[in-house]
Write a structure and sequence with these properties.
single chain; globular; 4-stranded parallel beta sheet; binds pyridoxal-5'-phosphate; 10 strands; 39% helix; binds zinc ion; Rossmann fold; alpha/beta
């Protein structure tokens, strides 16, 4: 990953960082040895052979573009059956011409988030190296994904490390139900990730966080499916929420490789959206102007930034828990992706995220808060004139609505009058939760209506609301 370091390692090793320079590893292929198709369109022929699980998988039917495993080594549970959808309501809300804003709905994956695209690849590599135990730290979705691969395939045992506090219940319930050994660390996600890295290194446990470069290979396929849905036309923009920055890094790598291979002729622009309460990338890229710069980046400045973060004991805080991360491990790879894709970074408030989420729900595509950051970011970039109303824009809806029902119910049911003063709302959990996140209004809320348990009262209410 450090372009100055030429160290290479075999695919049979389980390192995540380079023992020479200490940077994360990156997967590179000798494309001359890969039987590549002449055009991307040829991948469509696999639809007709989808009884073959490798052709059915939305990841592995593009296997020539992530060729690190032999067919018989591949671990798949039918991930990636996700499609590009349009919603007139959401497009209008974000300020786009009809049909210009599209939603890549990754909540339809087996564990309900895009993480399965990467976990099928990490599971495949774990299987290739004969791992018996796999582990990850997680804000929730990575653990749900690893746990489902472990329970479905029975190839390895799973240990998940979660932080204490803000894990969304849908995600925690998945890890528990799928039978993962679940360790609740008394710290936050950034702490849990540090612990799991040390523990895996000490015990020889296979590490499945997005420091694992194979996960990013699988996540490239999200872009392949977007291109396929657009009949192999490249959109103008890809908009994605940024947490640990694995997705944005993978997208940049996908487009860079496709262009190098002559399979596309243009690269879309990339917008990575942080939550205001966990905006490390936004600060580094937009405020401190840190750039990949062909690999010659200002590491002293980055280290200074994290040093100051430690000194101030600054912790990530957002209701979009999937992106509540202050130390994104794939920072450098993401900076590289931003360079390849002429990208921008924006931050959006929890209030904007929850409003966008309610609009996405009303448009028929429920998602969790982190996913809605993408749509809120597209709306902001539209307002700023960075994206034009006629641009073709694809927002990645990263996770399913049912992952985090608490935030949904809180947004819709809270009494807006109680959002202004935290002091008076301690008796109301939802008002407290939203106030602490800086939410002062809920214009897209669809509040439940309380009514007496009496036929006449219900009929009178229906008259009043015109039903
Ligand atoms: C993991 C996750 C993200 C963040 O993705 P990164 O690759 O870590 O930047 C966003 N949304 C959801 C739903 C996630 O599970
Ligand atoms: Zn190195």
């Amino acid at each position: 990953m450090n372009p100055a370091c030429r160290a290479t390692y075999s695919v049979s090793e389980t390192l995540v960082d380079c023992s020479k320079c200490g940077h994360l590893l990156d997967i590179a292929y000798d494309w001359n040895r890969v039987p590549l198709p002449g055009s991307l369109k040829q991948f469509e022929s696999r639809w007709s052979s989808r009884r073959n699980p490798l052709d059915f998988s939305g990841v592995w039917r593009f296997r020539e573009l992530l060729p690190f495993a032999r067919d018989e080594q591949i671990v798949t549970i039918g991930e990636g059956q996700t499609i590009l959808q349009s919603s007139a309501g959401v497009g209008k809300y974000a300020g786009f011409q009809t049909g210009k804003l599209l939603l890549q709905y990754e909540g339809l994956n087996p564990s309900g988030s895009f993480k399965d695209n990467g976990m099928t690849a990490a599971s495949t590599h774990a299987h290739m190296v004969g791992a018996k135990v796999a582990a990850c730290a997680s804000t929730g979705n990575t653990s749900a994904s690893l746990a489902i691969y472990s329970s479905t395939t029975r190839l390895f045992e799973t240990i998940v490390f979660i932080g204490s506090g803000k894990i969304a219940y849908g995600k925690l319930s998945q890890a528990l139900d799928y039978g993962a050994k679940t360790l609740q660390i008394q710290g936050d996600f950034d702490d849990a990730l540090k612990q799991v890295r040390d523990v895996c290194a000490a015990r020889g446990i296979y590490l499945c966080n997005s420091v694992n470069p194979f996960r990013l290979e699988g996540q490239k396929s999200i872009m392949f499916r977007v291109l396929e849905a657009l009949n192999w036309e490249v959109p103008d923009w890809i908009v994605v929420p940024g947490g640990n920055l694995g997705n944005s890094s993978a997208f940049g790598k996908a487009f860079f490789e496709l262009k190098e291979l002559g399979l596309i002729h243009r690269i879309p622009r990339l917008a990575v959206i942080n939550a205001t309460g966990s905006n490390t990338l936004y600060q580094l890229f937009e405020q401190h102007k840190i750039r990949w710069n062909g690999g010659k980046l200002d590491e002293a400045k980055i280290n200074g930034f994290f040093g100051q973060m430690d000194t101030d004991n600054r912790r990530a805080s957002t209701l979009a828990t999937a992106i509540e991360i202050n130390r994104p491990v794939n920072l450098l790879k993401c900076l590289r992706a931003l360079e390849v894709c002429d990208g921008v970074v924006r931050e959006v408030s929890d209030e904007a995220i929850l409003e966008a989420k309610a609009q996405i729900g009303a448009g028929g595509f429920g998602c969790e808060p982190a996913s809605a950051a993408g749509v809120a970011g597209a709306k902001l970039l539209r307002e700023q004139g960075v994206i034009s109303p006629s641009d073709q824009v694809v927002c990645i809806l990263t996770g399913h609505q049912l992952k985090d029902p608490t935030s949904t119910v809180a947004y819709h049911s809270v009494d807006p009058a109680r959002l202004s003063a935290i002091a008076t709302t301690e008796d109301d959990a939802y008002a407290t939760m939203l106030s602490k996140a800086g939410v002062t209004q809920t214009p897209a809320a669809n509040r439940p209506i309380v009514v007496e348990n009496k036929f006449e009262s219900i009929m009178a209410l229906l008259d009043r609301i015109g039903c």
